Amino acid sequence: LKTPLKQAATSQLVLTERQPDCQPLTTPPKPKETPPADPWTPTSNLKMLISAASPEIRSREQRRQLSDSSSEALQTKHCLQEHLLGDEYEKSQPSRKEKSLGLLCHKFLARYPDYPSPSQKSYICLDEVTEELHVERRRIYDIVNVLESLHMVSRLARNRYVWHGRHNLPQTLQALKKVGEENKYIQQIQMMKKREYEHEFDPDSERNEEMASSFGSSEQSEMSFVELPGVEFRAASVNGRKYKSLRVMSQKFVMLFLVSTPQIVSLEVAAKILIGEDQLEDLDKSKFKTKIRRLYDIANVLSSLKLIKKVHVTEERGRKPAFKWTGPEVLPNAQDTKLEATSTTSSPPISESITSKEQCSKALFPSKGKQNFTRHSSLIKLVKSIENDRRKIQSAPTSPVKISASTYQSLPVFPNTIAQFPAITKHQLEGQSKTAEEMQMKCALSLPEAVPKPEPSQQPALSQPLGVCPASHSSVSPVILPHPQSGVSYAIYLHPSQAHTVTTYSPGFMLQPLPCANVTGIKSNNSKVLNKITTEEGDTQRGLDEPTKSLAAEERPETKSETSQRCLKRSQALPETNLIKRRKSDEESLDTSLTFFPSGYLIPLTHCTHGNKAECSTKEKAGVCSLQHTAYSSPITGVIPMPASELKTVNIPAFHITPLNIMLSPNSIAAAPVLSNSCLNSSSTSSAPNPSSSALNFMLQHIGLIPAGVQIPANPVVQHVPVSSQSENISHSSGSTNVQEGKVIEFTFYSPINESNFLFSLQPSAPKEPQEPQAVTENFFRTPGGPNTEPALSANSDGTQRTSQGALYIPQRKLEVSED
DNA sequence: TCCTCCCGCCAAGCA
DNA sequence: TGCTTGGCGGGAGGA
């Protein structure tokens, strides 16, 4: 940079030696590094000596100078510019992007035709390529390895490859798809997601370990390179490294796209699956990172080949990088190719052709497990008509939209698919006016969550192992509340934030996933299942969003029109889908079409045992198991769900109930039927005690719905809970809520004793007076006999007076309940 | 801060 | 033994 005059004058040769160093693509100059006092580096010194000693070398250098004169002039100019602009030099260097593997791959591919004439083979000489593209050999290997995995090139000899172009691509892709199916990548993806959710909730649970082991065992352990006949694999390192090579990884990566629907694979999932094939247990961060790095390498090349395209999948836990398959559609085993997959999997070959529909059902009904049920459309109609009959029996007000929405939300956790399940199944089975593509899309959209799902209607849901339920779906965290005095436990279903408070507050509390109903609304399901996919270009987004929208749109009207039916269906599935989906974004997603209204609620754990379909059907016969029995057998009962639209109206998002106030008096505990949570594992349909008014009253008193003195007559059949005349207490203690913003809250209440569901409507007895939010909350959770124990209440299980009598004014602002 | 991924070390394996 | 091949991870540019 600031060469001393002395040296500049010393040797023209040295100068010319240095000038080419300015070339960006050769050895970068390091002017700054040159110590001003000693510009003679050992290298230059040596070169000068050699040059001086050998005329031949000198003349060669001169020739090179001449040949490069033009570019040199430019470079000199460049150098001068650098001198002038100082650290501008660095900017003149090719940016990182310009050196990207993707761009390099583009350059590489541009050298060869996509479909070379078979008669004249193109050969690739690595030396030439590296020289012409001005890259390191190492980078070319990255490209060539991926191309090799697609049989677009094959290695001929050292330094020498043959270019096949895209001739073999269809065959290769088909082979890869086949192998991918054989390797059950779909299941692996599902398993992985499931595991992920479980892990999020319960990182050290045995279930996770089981899952991990099953995951590890289910996948192919030593899948090797998938070859095509005639395109043999002649890697330099045939053994050992072959199995870890970028080639194999690339093939697996492609397989993931080919087998999954939609053909979108996130890097995270891909990396985990690829690691899982080695050993999932040793999944450490560095390994994961390395895998991700390699996947980026592969993805870059595949992107250059226009086989995939980068997208982003927005999930509840953030934006994830993913890639979407944009390559040719691979028909599922349309024709049995003469492909030879050298996979060592023992999976039997797939003989039958798999239609997209079948894949769909495959994804939704994984073969393992007992969830492999579908409901025939006729059954759906049957259920519908039953439900209609029930509606007729019940008065119009008894088919509350709100409750329906809530019950609809009280969907299984598994939700996401379960939520759409009936619709999907219906579509699948009826297949009316739906194209196969649409079907596929639907399935696809539900795939991300397509863990093995139980069919709601056809089996006693409680027989479902708890472990199947991904607890982490729960939006409402069930908190097991052990009570030392009674030796029994309660489950409180809380919003995560509340749950957190609880755990913070009381170390004795323990967050434990329970098989409880998913209280999240369908929208949240949708939003999760139908991950919002955004491409960088944005075009794909439209395309992908559309099905999302359409599906969501399809769901919404149904929510109203077929709510009852869904309620029925889902209520039957509740026991096993008792996990309440946990979502951090619950509050944020209140603008969604449906959501639930979180609250704390004490539920004796007996619920999980008592509620089952058998009982339900019994009740149904008796005309008691109304559509509200969505809450049936589910601790969800305490959750007060509301459609988001309504929440919007009353600004409920801020409604929080601090669980710290949920205190049980020893007396009440003693009075309540409580079982240890081991009963949760029981699938027995053990008969509940005879309907007991004391139990019912206990519950009602505990949630502050009736004063301690009020007794509700026990009757398995619908009861009208007398409205307390003392309900003014709660209203008078309030202070801030605008009457116009008040809202009727309805919710179902399941009495494990009565085995009945009760529908409650809450209203302030004096709507003119604003209510104090805290008072409301307190009354919700106070122990019997406490002050202000009489909230206005009308409750019945047939709901006949529900809307007309009950109205609780929900405070507009956040309810903050101080510790009691 | 996290995502991306370039870069080059260095070991395995081949000629 | 030198060269080719490629696994691997540090760390830097970019978003």
Automatic annotation (TrEMBL):
Name of the protein: Transcription factor E2F8
Compositional bias of kind Low complexity: 342-355
Region ranges (Disordered): 1-44, 334-355, 534-573, 764-820
Main location: nucleus
Compartments, as annotated in UniProt: Nucleus
GO MF terms, alphabetically ordered: DNA-binding transcription factor activity, RNA polymerase II-specific; RNA polymerase II cis-regulatory region sequence-specific DNA binding
Family: Belongs to the E2F/DP family.
Protein's gene: E2f8
InterPro entries per the UniProt record, alphabetical: E2F (IPR015633), E2F_WHTH_DNA-bd_dom (IPR003316), WH-like_DNA-bd_sf (IPR036388), WH_DNA-bd_sf (IPR036390)
Any GO CC annotation of this UniProt entry: RNA polymerase II transcription regulator complex
Keywords recorded for this protein, A-Z: Activator, Cell cycle, DNA-binding, Nucleus, Repressor, Transcription, Transcription regulation
Pfam family, one: WHD_E2F_TDP
Gene3D superfamilies reported in the protein's UniProt record: Winged helix-like DNA-binding domain superfamily/Winged helix DNA-binding domain (1.10.10.10)
Keyword Transcription among record annotations: yes
Keyword Cytoplasm in annotation: no
SMART domains from the UniProt entry: E2F_TDP
Compositional bias annotation for Basic and acidic residues: 539-563
Domain E2F/DP family winged-helix DNA-binding: 96-165, 241-327
Comp. bias regions, Polar residues: 794-806
A biological process from GO: negative regulation of DNA-templated transcription
Organism from which the protein derives: Ploceus nigricollis
Lineage: Eukaryota, Metazoa, Chordata, Craniata, Vertebrata
